[in-house]
Design a protein that fits this description.
Shape: globular
Distance between the termini: 12 Å
Number of strands: 25
Helix content: 25-40%
Radius of gyration: 25 Å
Bound molecules: 6-O-phosphono-alpha-D-glucopyranose
Number of helices: 19
Structural class: alpha/beta
Length: 609
C-alpha cells in the first residue's frame, strides 16, 4: 500500500531510488515518482500515473545527477491515480519534497487552515498537507519541523522528507505503517520494506510507531514525537538479493510457486526433528497461558483467512478446543466473546494488514493471548503479539500469495500439533506420524510441481471460460476457496469456492457445459461424499477437473481431467492440493495475458481498513 524509498550519501540518488521502487512496486502501482536534490541545489521532481515503467520511459535515462533523493510508488486512497496526485509532493517554496504511505485522517481540517493562511495546494491528496504543515514549522531545523508537524496530525504514516538546505539528510517517520532505515557505509536509506535496499545494505533499523529518523551519511539519530532521543536495535537481514529477484522465471508468481519446496523446508527448520517430534520454541515462553486457553480464533484477510480456516479445523480436530476462522475486517465490528482464556492467532504475510491488526488490538485489550504468524521480521503485527512464529519463507514479491499461504498453513499445523502435545490430546504415535508427514512435504511438493505441463495444457483449454466453481470438504473447503481466489486475482476470471455439500443448495444452478467444476477429491474421510457431489455436477454436464490422490481408480469415471497428487495424511493435504490450483490460476492468467505479478486494483499489503 504505497512504497517509499530514500537515499542520502555520495552517490547519485535517482538510479538507487528507481531500483528500490522496482522492488516495492508490489505495494501499489497507481503512480510512481522521484525527487532528487540536483547539483545546482534545486529539487527535481518527476512523477507519472501508472506503473514505474511509465516514469522510467518518461525519464528515458535522463534523471539528473544529485543527492539525496526520495521515491514513491502509490496505491491510491485520496485522489485519483493521476500525475498530479502522484508523490513526491512539495511545499509552497518548492524547497521541501515529501513522500507518504498511509492516511492523514485530519487532513481536511489542516488543509482548510493552511489554505486560509495562503498555502497553495496542487493535488487532492491527504499527503500534501504534510508538506505544507512542515513548511509552516520550518526554521532551518528539518527534523524539528517534521516533529512539530507530526504532533498535529492523526492517522497512519510512513514519510520521507528532503529539503534543499539539507544535502546530507533525509528525515523519515513512522506511525502504524512500516518504515525501515538502512545503514550503509557512508550512506543511509529509508524504505517501506527490506528488498528495496537489500542490494546496498543488510543492516537495518526497524522503526517503532512514533519514531522520527534523522538519516545522514554518517549515521542515524532517532527521536520520539516528544523530542526524546532513543536507541533502536540494528537487525541484520539474512535474505539474499537473489531472493528478491526473478532469477530466470517469467514472473515472481511462478518463481514463488517453485520456491515452495524450499520454503516448506525452511519453515520446518528447527521445528520438526527427524523423529517427527514437532515443537515451536517460540511458544515456550507462553506455555502457562496456553495451558488455560478454552477457545481459539484465527484471524486473517484474503489468502491468509483461508490458511486460518485450515488452522481452525485442525486445532478443533487435534486439540479439541472450539476454534474458528475470523475475517479480519469483520471481527472488530462484530466481535465474538474474547477473554483471558481466549487464544487469538493473527495470520498475515506482510504483518501490516490493517484489517488484521485492528481485531488483534481489540483482543489484547480484552486480555486474550495473542500469537502471530507472519513473514516479515519486526512487522507491525509482531508488536501486538505475546509470541511470534515466522514463516521463514523468504521475501514474497508477487501480489498474489503462494509460498506464504503454504507456509502459513504449515505453521498453523505445527501450532495445532504443539498444542495437542502440550495438552495430551493426540497420542505420541499420531503426533510423530504427522510430524514425519510434515518432513516429507518438501519432497512431495517438488513432485507435485512436476505436474505443471499437464496443468498448462488444461489451463489453455479452459482459459476462455467465464466462470469456475471450486468445491472441497473439510480441509479441502478452504483450499477450494483459495483456488478460486487465486484464479480471480491472477486471471480476472469469475470463480467461487464452496463447501462441496453446499453445491446442491444453490450453486448447482450455475453449472452447465461452459462452467467447469474443480473438485478437491483427495483420499480421506470425506472422499466418498465429495465424489457424490462431483457426480451431481457431472449429471448437469459440467466439465469436471478433479484433484485426486495417486492410485485413485474411481474418479476418472466422473472427471474429464484428473490431476493426481502424492498421498499425504488428510489433515496435511492442503499444503499439496493447493499447488495445482496455483499453477492453474497462473497458467490461465498467462493464457489470458493479464498482469500476473501485479493484478489490477490489488496491492500486496493493505494498510487501510
Ligand atoms: C491483500 C493481498 C492479498 C492478501 C491479503 C492479506 O489483499 O492482495 O493477496 O492475501 O492482502 O495479506 P497479508 O499480508 O495480511 O497476509
Amino acid at each position: 500500500m504505497c512504497g517509499i524509498v530514500g537515499y542520502v550519501g555520495p552517490r547519485d540518488a535517482a538510479p538507487i531510488l528507481i531500483e528500490g521502487l522496482r522492488r516495492l512496486e508490489y505495494r501499489g502501482y497507481d503512480s510512481a515518482g522521484i525527487a532528487v536534490l540536483t547539483d545546482d541545489g534545486k529539487v527535481f521532481i518527476e512523477k507519472k500515473a501508472g506503473k514505474l515503467n511509465n516514469l522510467t520511459d518518461h525519464l528515458n535515462g535522463n534523471a539528473p545527477a544529485g543527492h539525496p533523493g526520495i521515491g514513491h510508488t502509490r496505491w491510491a486512497t485520496h485522489g485519483s491515480p493521476n500525475d498530479t496526485n502522484a508523490h513526491p509532493h512539495t511545499d509552497c517554496t518548492g524547497k521541501l519534497a515529501l513522500i507518504h504511505n498511509g492516511i492523514i485522517e485530519n487532513y481536511a481540517e489542516i488543509k482548510t487552515r493552511l489554505v486560509a493562511e495562503g498555502h497553495r495546494f496542487s493535488s487532492e491528496t491527504d499527503t500534501e498537507v504534510l508538506a505544507h504543515l512542515i513548511e509552516t514549522k520550518y526554521r532551518g531545523d528539518l527534523v524539528e519541523a517534521v516533529r512539530a508537524a507530526l504532533n498535529e496530525v492523526r492517522g497512519a504514516y510512513a514519510i520521507g522528507v528532503m529539503h534543499t538546505e539539507h544535502r546530507d539528510r533525509i528525515v523519515g517517520a513512522r506511525m502504524n505503517v512500516p518504515l525501515i532505515v538502512g545503514l550503509g557505509d557512508g550512506e543511509g536509506f529509508l524504505a517501506s520494506d527490506v528488498p528495496a535496499i537489500l542490494e546496498h545494505t543488510k543492516n537495518v533499523v526497524i522503526l517503532h510507531e512514533g519514531d522520527i529518523a534523522d538519516v545522514t551519511p554518517s549515521g542515524t539519530r532517532i527521536l520520539l514525537l516528544d523530542g526524546t532521543e532513543v536507541q533502536r536495535d540494528v537487525t541484520e537481514i539474512h535474505w539474499s538479493i537473489e531472493a528478491a529477484e526473478k532469477g530466470g522465471f517469467a514472473h515472481f508468481t511462478l518463481k514463488e510457486i517453485y520456491e515452495q519446496p524450499h520454503a516448506i523446508q525452511e519453515c520446518l527448520r528447527g521445528r520438526v526433528d527427524p523423529g517427527g517430534n514437532v515443537s515451536l520454541p517460540e511458544l515456550d515462553a507462553i506455555a502457562d497461558r496456553l495451558a488455560v486457553i478454552e477457545r481459539v480464533y484465527i484471524v486473517g484477510c484474503g489468502t491468509a483467512s483461508y490458511a486460518a480456516h485450515v488452522g481452525a479445523y485442525l486445532i478443533q480436530d487435534w486439540v479439541g478446543l472450539p476454534a474458528s476462522m475470523q475475517v479480519g475486517s469483520e471481527m472488530r465490528y462484530s466481535p465474538p466473546p474474547i477473554d483471558a482464556k481466549t487464544l487469538i492467532i493473527g495470520v498475515s504475510q506482510s504483518g501490516e494488514t490493517a484489517d488484521t491488526l485492528a481485531p488483534l488490538k481489540l483482543a489484547e485489550e480484552r486480555g486474550a493471548t495473542v500469537v502471530v504468524v507472519t513473514n516479515v521480521v519486526g512487522s507491525a503485527i509482531t508488536r501486538e503479539a505475546d509470541a511470534v512464529c515466522y514463516l521463514q519463507a523468504g521475501p514474497e514479491i508477487a501480489v498474489a500469495s503462494t509460498k506464504a499461504f503454504v507456509t502459513q498453513v504449515l505453521v498453523l499445523e505445527m501450532i495445532a500439533l504443539h498444542l495437542a502435545r502440550a495438552r495430551g490430546t493426540l497420542s505420541d504415535n499420531r503426533l510423530r506420524t504427522y510430524g514425519r508427514a510434515l518432513r516429507s512435504l518438501p519432497r512431495l511438493a517438488a513432485e507435485t510441481l512436476e505436474l505443471a505441463p499437464q496443468i498448462k495444457k488444461l489451463a489453455q483449454r479452459y482459459a476462455r471460460v467465464r466462470d469456475f466453481i471450486f468445491i472441497g470438504r473439510g480441509v479441502g473447503f478452504p483450499i477450494a476457496m483459495e483456488g478460486a481466489l487465486k484464479l480471480k486475482e491472477l486471471s480476472y476470471v469469475h470463480a467461487e469456492g464452496y463447501a462441496a455439500g453446499e453445491l446442491k443448495h444453490g450453486p448447482i444452478a450455475l453449472l452447465d457445459p461452459e462452467t467447469p467444476l474443480v473438485a478437491i477429491a483427495t483420499a480421506g474421510a470425506v472422499y466418498d461424499k465429495v465424489v457424490s457431489n462431483v457426480a451431481e455436477a457431472r449429471a448437469r454436464s459440467a466439465p469436471i477437473i478433479a484433484i485426486a490422490t495417486v492410485g485413485d481408480d474411481q474418479i476418472d469415471h466422473y472427471a474429464q481431467d484428473v490431476i493426481y497428487v502424492p498421498e499425504t495424511p488428510e489433515p496435511i493435504s492442503p499444503v499439496i492440493t493447493v499447488l495445482p490450483l496455483q499453477l492453474l490460476a497462473y497458467e490461465v492468467a498467462v493464457a489470458r495475458g493479464t498482469d500476473v505479478d501485479q493484478p489490477r486494483n490489488l496491492a500486496k499489503s493493505v494498510t487501510v481498513e
